[in-house]
Amino acid sequence: MKGAGGSSGGIGHFFIGLIMMCGGFYMLLNAISVTSNFGLSSRIYSVNALGGFGVTGGMVMIPFIFGVGLIFYNSKNILGWVLSLGSLTALIFGVISSVRFSMRTMASFDLIVIIILAFGGLGLFLRSLNLLILK
Questions:
Q1: What share of the chain is helix, strand, coil (3-state, %, to 5)?
Q2: Residue 69: CB partners within 8 Å, gap ≥ 6?
Q3: What are phi and psi of 101, to 5 degrees?
Q4: Which pLDDT band holds residue 133 (cuts at 50, 70, 90)?
């Protein structure tokens, strides 16, 4: 009987690798802390050429308000759609750019265990699939 990837005996490596990989990547993602300072009065974009002028989230909402008003007045108005979609895009990029990732403090042993589980499991998993690309 053929195992995973068409090789004999690949099923055991497949499941052991899958369990190791899932456990390691879970521990890695669990050790990452995500924070954000986003608010309507916080700076989204800064222009240093004008003496430190910053564009806040509230300033981005002003063109959005005009765009929505233009769309409700005439839904075929291109300027209303450009203002609305442009300000929403700027707001989304501002929120994403204000997100900060940091790892919690851990012992080196913990980090070594996470790396061995995650990437050792990934290696066993890929080996069990018997991929021609990796040979």
A1: 65, 15, 20
A2: 80
A3: -110, 140
A4: low
Q: What is the pLDDT of residues 33-47, one digit of tens each?
A: 988 776 666 666 666
Looking at residue 84, the DSSP 8-state letter turns out to be H
What length does the chain have?
135
Q: Tokens 């090789």: give the residue.
A: 7
Q: How many whole angstroms separate alpha carbon 98 and alpha carbon 94?
A: 6
Which candidate, 34, 35, 33, 31, places its Cα nearest to that of 111? 31
Q: How far apart are CA 118 and CA 28, in angstroms?
A: 8
For the segment 67-90, the average pLDDT, to the nearest whole number, is 93
Each residue's pLDDT tens digit, 71-81: 999 999 999 99
